[in-house]
Queue: 4 jobs
Job 1
Amino acid sequence: MSDPVEPAGLNEIIGANRARITEMTEVSRLKDVEFELLRVVHPLTRNESTLARFNDLVKELMAHCAEPNFMIGVTGLSRGVGASYVAMNTAVALANDFRRTSLLVECNPHRTPLARMLLPPPEVGLCDYLVQSELHVDDIVYAPGVARMRAIPFGHDAAGAQALCGERMQQLLSAARARYSDRFIVLDLPEVDALQALQPLLDWLDGTVLVVPYGSSSSTTARRAIDVIGSERLVGLVMNRVPTV
């Protein structure tokens, strides 16, 4: 990306009027070639089938969630199955509709596609905010170069990872959702095995999408993952890395 991203203000999170959507378009945008290199879907992509799959996923989520806007998590059956890629592109696909905005929240400590979009690397993020009271929301919200989309990177303070189920996290998510009716929130969650400690966080969401690698997982493993998530919380199953014909 040629230009550094710019932090969004607090009103980007808690603003109450639709005019904010128009204002959100005034950011340094990724070029089409950058979208392709980063494997990020966009309306003019040459990979129309991938774009269609994410648009279909968004439609399914919109139909499943009763609220006017929703907050979902995306997790993988194991590390490295592409769950962060799915979370990123779900947030992008949501923001591709001019009537909506999206917020991607990284709750995953591993390197993700978002890390390659935010240049220069952000100095602070979610985990820093959760344990450093002097930080404000506008310190951790960034523009990744996609119109109508904002992102909160994971951050650097290891102690903050223990606060993902804390009151400050709940307040952040509640403000983002309740005070901006056009904002759809996608949480990039760690793999299923790490979700046992994040059950309160899962309870705050409208649902969770499970990403499963094509042809390399057993039905027993998938059922165990669904048990961890909770069948009542599962709102989508994405088969990733399906071979093309």
Note: The first strand starts at residue 71 and ends at 76.
Job 2
Amino acid sequence: MQFVSPILGVITVVAAFLIAVSPLADYGLQIAAFTMVVYVGVSFLIRKRILSADIKVTLDILVFSLTISLLIFTTGGFASPVFFLSYFLLFGVTLFSSPITATAITVTFALLFIVAPKADFWMDLLQMGSLLAIAPLSVLFGRQYIKVIADKKMITGLNQKVQKDKIDVTTWTEGDFRRRLLRIQEYLQKLGQDPSIELDKKERINSLYRQIYDLFLSGRSLEKKI
């Protein structure tokens, strides 16, 4: 998808330009509308899992690029009153795909500017200049967006690890840790009740018994904090 998306973006922009300079230009709006209908239909099939979700990004780039490019080129090209939609196109493809796709589309517009007929050269040049000025911002926006997504994935992974560790600690304190402490306490209790053991040793055993009990309580406290 790293190279497919930029190539697809270039192809759709060029296709829209060719439609605009051909006899099909009069049907530009109808073609755009038909494209949107197809998009809605295919999206419905993807939601119903009839079609693979892997084609969603490709479909988004295809429809978004073709529709906006058609609207621009069939309403005056670089002198179009809706040329500002090209800015949204650049920012949109950075969300659907990557900054590379936005860069490829910008370069395509620049090349088409060279060969396109110009009603007002300076006005068209101003429009093209504004698009070139917006392009770095869209690339920066795309990179930041990708970074945010990566950070969210990392945070999700850490949260899952914390939850797993919490379950492991709870299982250990309620299971093996607790059983072993109870066995030691039972053993120490029997020793403390043994009449053959001297008094000072019994006091030490009782002290050890209380310390083990405090250790058990601290383990339960740690479990609650986690």
Note: Helices lie at 4-20, 28-47, 56-73, 85-96, 99-115, 121-174, 176-192, 199-225.
Job 3
Amino acid sequence: MVHHVWGEVPPLGQATTPVSTRPAVQPPTTPERPVPASATRPKALQGLAHVIVALAVTVTVLEVFTALFSNVEPGTREAFLLGGDLVEDLAWYEEVQLLTYPLLLVAYLPACLWLYRARANSFLIDPRAIHERARAWVWLGWILPLVHLWYPYQVVRDVQNGSVRRGTYVEVTVWWGAWLTWLFATRTVAGLLNTRDRDPMMAEALSDTAASVTALNWISAAAAVLACVQWCRIVLGVTASQRLAFSPPR
């Protein structure tokens, strides 16, 4: 057998296939975009949860304080007909309300930030988590007309469901029902106190309403207590569940 200097000579009539010494050309690949560490790191909720609970309890105490000191004095109907203001007959009410509304505004910020972070964390727990409303509604749902009556409920419901997985919305539903009751009761009282119509028919209605303002304030206070208890349970429950979900296994 004859050998070529470059190797073995193939048999006569058999084609030769040149062997390339160049490396095989790989198809171009698209480099993967690195995922930011902040996108995969759970967001802290513990500190915000404590602030939310403290503010909720403070607002609730003020509501109870308002109910305790909102006794309408006798002669309200007559004073109203003579041009008096119903609010003058409510001890401490106006002063307490001046504290309540700014506190609600202050409580809005940490509550929405907590919901925003908890919503983001729920996707880390389960990427298939379903949230009916976009993340912008975490902030806007509380302040825009009409939608503020049910959008926040949906946001909180989906955050809890994505974190706790109870399969039931009783806790959130009770909280939201109590919140709406408080909202409507306080607005009704505020509307009555700002009444400037001296119509005798209005005064006749206010002869009952003046005495009912105290009852409305007690309804508002009871609703505030129930809403506060349920809201704190939701916030602390979701915070604890997410902390447990992100804790390293032992």
Note: The radius of gyration is 33 Å.
Job 4
Amino acid sequence: MNPSKQAKTRDIAEAAGVSTATVSRVFSRHPYVSEEIRQKVLEIARKLHYAPTITSSRYLIGVMMRSIDEGILFNPYHNQLLHHVSQELFRRGFNIRIFGENQLPYLHKHSFAGVILTDSTVAEEIRESGIPVLLVNRVIPGMHSIVTDHREGIALAVRHLLENGHRRIGLLRLTDNWGSNERESGFRSALKQMGVEPDSSLIIQYKEADDPVRIVQQLWKFRPTAVIAEGETVGVPLNYAFYRLGIKVPEELSVITFEDPMNSQYMTPPQTTVFQNFAVLGQAVAETIADLCASEFRWPKVPECRVLNCSQLIERKSVRNIRSGVLADKGKS
């Protein structure tokens, strides 16, 4: 074969001594192909520098979340991530299927080119099935993942508060969450870099189902001047708790929310927030899962963990400069 000519499916089939249908089954991960034939076809594909055409009818990407019954699709984080991931995958010729971890048998009944996971509880089980897996904002050693630089993201919030005179800064963080652990580490590091010793009494862990009034009460008894609250839907319950407890924002407490871009702008007052650039994150996720699906016959392989610096601080009206007594933010709403 002329090396300058791009290899086609029939070239692979002739060299392997199989039909073009068998070659197609290998590249679409069809279960009814022997391992010997599969490896032979892939080896010839590598030698001929063949890259299969990815079509929507042949390549299907699964997007697995926590139980769909939990209303996960109403979560603004997942909504925006899905929007940008699906746009880029559709552009590349992929179809996607969204399902919850409680629908795991569905995965085994269908042929998926790869799976995107936004949670990690079933990651090992899926990997054992041989399907390429990509974790988003979760890390498991030995598995491919795309993560936002959560430490730098929360450092943006810490520096903003320190610049406005705050030293007693609280952190409301989720429990048992890799991203939350990263943010707490970044929170502590950013304070220390500015000569402020973190106060563990101002770091409160909570679960999404916890009573927000009780959580804020627990923090408020230590009288912070500011708080950073993380969680994709934290803005509304936090605002409710401040109202119930009579805490005035930002006169008595400055507030920065983390990753609640949709709700935070409609709070009273509009909340300063740190958010991930979902367009950047979504494109990176789509690119990486596409490369993972082709990694058996395309080089180089995808790195195990890719860290994106795609967070930014949006200033609104929930932070007060405690030295001057005026709003620190730019007044955006």
Note: The chain has twelve helices and twelve strands.
